[in-house]
Amino acid sequence: MSLLIHPGFHKTGTTWLQQQLFSDSRYFLMMFDHEEIDGLFIRPHDLEFSVADVASEVARRRAAAGSPVIEVISSENLSGQPFAGSLLSRTVAQRLADTCGPAKILLTVRAQLPITRSLYMQYLKRGGRLTIDKFLSYQPEPNYAWFNESVLKFGNLARCYGQLFGDENVLALPQELLARDRRAWLGHFFRFVIGAEPPTDLDLDGRERTGVSPPASGMPLLRTANLFREGPLNPNAIRTFGWLGDMLHRGAYRWKVGNGAAERTLNAIIRKRFSGQFAADNKLLQNYCPVDLRALGYEMEPDPAIIRDSDSSTIVETESVGNGW
Question: What's the fold here for domain 1-112+144-210+279-300?
Answer without folding.
Answer: Rossmann fold (3.40.50)
